[in-house]
UniProtKB/TrEMBL annotation:
Protein name (Swiss-Prot/TrEMBL): Methyltransferase-like 26
Residues in the signal sequence: none
Lineage: Eukaryota, Metazoa, Chordata, Craniata, Vertebrata
InterPro entries: DUF938, SAM-dependent_MTases_sf
Domain of life: Eukaryota
Coiled coil feature spans: none
Similarity remark: Belongs to the UPF0585 family.
Gene3D superfamilies: Vaccinia Virus protein VP39
Listed Pfam families: DUF938
Length: 140
């Protein structure tokens, strides 16, 4: 499991903002995290927000292994195994996520390190996959 220093530093402040959106509804909230990296955020947020069904994803095989290690180590029922997701590909390839089914689409520290077509893909996917009133949450 990887534990990037930046993720350790920013997880608390990000969680405080996520609580504003994740605490509003009733029932389970579906969350897709695009570019989950090491998985530290996914594990931390899933633990802190038990009303979510947290789906981490990444394109990097090394990141997927780290996320899987967090999933196994934490054994939280609301933290799902990671999926391979290339945000530059159409939403139809995003792990079977159906239109208008997500409450939150989370992307942390992806846009500033990826190419423009990845950011465009993120916004296109959000436009299709988020429920009415759903939130695209970006950081970094």
């Amino acid at each position: 499991m990887q534990a990037p220093a930046a993720a350790e530093r920013n997880k608390g402040p990000i969680l405080e903002v996520l609580r504003e959106y994740a605490g509003a509804g009733t029932g389970t909230l579906r969350v897709l995290e695009v570019g989950a990296g090491a998985g530290l955020h996914a594990a931390y947020f899933a633990r802190a927000l038990p009303q979510t069904r947290w789906q981490p994803s990444d394109i990097d095989p090394r990141a997927l292994r780290s996320i899987a290690a967090y999933v196994e180590a934490t054994r939280m029922p609301n933290l799902l195994p990671p999926i391979l997701l290339d945000v530059a590909q159409g939403w139809e390839t995003w792990g079977g996520t159906q239109p208008a089914t997500l409450d939150l689409l989370v992307s942390i520290n992806m846009m500033h390190i990826s190419e423009l077509h990845c950011t465009e893909g993120l916004f296109k996917g959000a436009g299709v996959l988020l429920k009415p009133g759903g939130v695209l949450f970006t950081y970094g």
